[in-house]
Amino acid sequence: MKKITESDSNYDGLEKMSVSDLLLNINKEDKTVANSVAAQIPQIEKLVNAIVLQMKNGGRLFYLGAGTSGRLGIVDASECPPTFGVDHGLVVGLMAGGDKAMRKAVEFAEDSSSLGWEDLKTHNITSRDVVIGIAASGTTPYVIGALKKCQEEKIITGCIVCNCNSPVAEVSDYPVEVVVGPEFVTGSTRMKSGTAQKLVLNMISTAVMIK
To answer: Which among 47, 51, 176, 181 counts the fewest CB atoms within 10 Å?
Structure first.
C-alpha cells in the first residue's frame, strides 16, 4: 500500500509565497477533490443502498474515526436530526478519545485496536446496524480493530479512506477510496482528504435520509 496522503506536496517554498498565491494554490488543489469523489459514486451508491436496507429493518448508522475524520463523522451525525427530523440515535458519530477529543487531541487514543469496538458496544451495536470507518490514511488502529470485530459479528461495514488498498478497506464490505493526491501542506489530511470525506458524508446521509 502506498500512502498517497503522506506524499510530498506538489509545492515548494510555501513560506515564500504571497498570501494571494497561497490562497490560489490551495483553491487549485481543492478544485480537484470533487472529481475524485465523483469517481467513487458507484461505490458510494452500493454503501447507501446497504444502509437504506438496514435502516428499513430498524438499523442505525455509525461513523467511527479519529482526529479530523472522527470530527467530520460527529458533525454529519449531529446535523441529521435538525435537517431531517430523525431521532438523535439514528446516526451516531464516535471518535477516538471520546467527545473531549472534538476540541483537544487525546494522545494515543487512535492507536488502540480495541477501543473502537468498546465504544460501539456502549451503544448496543447489533447486526441490524451499519458501521462506517473514516480514516484518511486507512491505517488507523482504532478504526481497523472496530471494523474487523464488526465483520466477525456479521455487522455491515463501510469506509471512507483516501488511499487505495488500505487495511481499513480490507475490513470493509463497502469501501469508498477517494484518492485526492498529495496535500498542499505535506501530510495535512485535514485539507483535501478532509474535504473529500465531508463531501462523501454529505452524500451518504442525504441520500439515505431521502430514501
So the answer is: 181
